[in-house]
Design a protein that fits this description.
Length: 288
């Protein structure tokens, strides 16, 4: 079963400055104007079917318009499932309001733990509070980047997160065009943290799905803060798979799947939403 999904970068701005951030500082800026937010909401209102709208950034909560207009607008005007990727730095009253506004509509909160800017203890306290405030059937998952040279800290964080009853999702560090080559000191800890051949639900190891039929562009796309839509992150990086712009009316989805032409699939969202032949949801459906 495929879950149509759009990953919407609602802003570039972020209140953190992680040393391993895949987005360079130059691009971690900006947000849409109030008029553009209104046009984005018009677009989502007319997007046919029920999509999962996963908001990302930057840091979504660092953009005022996110909680003032985007979340209330999507909840009130569209039927879509709302998910978000956040560093969980927003003050508790803001997160509590998010839980209230998304009641009955929330899919997944992907909470990213950035140990350069918070402690695992403070983060887990907030994550547990939010988990208890959101819909009972919504999921809250804790992500952490396997930052080279700091894997002891990540290992300790994993222990604390899992002991608290939260799901821990390790992510190998991505660099331009691929994944970081861990040295021999870090490699054993990376293997321990991600396990052997983990599924895309258990870890992000940025595999290659070259040649497999993929619905990116047809039932999955990424949307930037300026309204440009791309089939997936890798196609965007390659300057291919542009689907037009949702703000100027040129947006159009592809009609069906195409074979993946890339050696890296850096994000697990397409795999975990059943977009890729033989992977994630699609693989389970085939096995059943
Ligand atoms: S919180 Fe995320 S977007 Fe912000 S600097 Fe860190 S990795 Fe980059
Ligand atoms: S498999 Fe991944 S990289 Fe390939 S087209 Fe699909 S989403 Fe893009």
């Amino acid at each position: 079963m495929r879950q149509p999904t759009v990953e919407w970068q609602v802003c570039g701005v972020c209140n953190y400055d992680c040393s391993y951030c895949i987005q360079s500082k130059k691009y971690r800026v900006g947000h849409p104007s109030a008029d553009d937010v209104a046009r984005f909401l018009d677009f989502f209102e007319t997007l046919p079917g029920t999509w999962e709208v996963k908001t990302t950034g930057g840091e979504p909560f660092a953009f005022k318009g996110f909680m003032e207009r985007i979340v209330p607008g999507l909840a009130a005007r569209t039927p879509h499932v709302l998910s978000t990727l956040t560093n969980l730095s927003a003050p508790w009253p803001v997160l509590e309001r998010f839980a209230r506004l998304t009641r009955g509509r929330l899919g997944i909160v992907s909470a990213s733990l950035h140990l350069e800017f918070t402690t695992v203890e403070a983060f887990v306290d907030k994550a547990l509070r939010l988990r208890d405030a959101i819909d009972a059937d919504a999921r809250l998952v804790v992500n952490a980047v396997l930052a080279p040279g700091r894997l002891d800290d990540v290992t300790r964080a994993k222990e604390i997160v899992t002991r608290a009853g939260l799901t821990f999702f390790p992510q190998v560090m991505k660099v331009k065009g691929g994944v970081h080559a861990y040295d021999e000191l870090d490699a054993p800890a990376v293997s321990r943290l991600v396990g052997i051949s983990p599924s895309p639900r258990r870890a992000n190891v940025a595999p290659s799905y070259r040649g497999r039929a993929c619905w990116a562009g047809a039932e999955y796309f990424v949307l930037t803060q300026t309204g440009d839509a791309w089939a997936c992150r890798t196609s965007k990086r390659a300057g291919e798979g542009r689907l037009g712009n949702v703000l100027d009316g040129t947006f159009a989805l592809a009609s069906g799947p195409t074979p993946c032409a890339y050696d890296i699939c850096p994000c697990t969202v397409p795999a975990n939403r059943g977009m890729i032949e033989g992977v994630g949801r699609a693989a389970r459906a085939e096995a059943e």
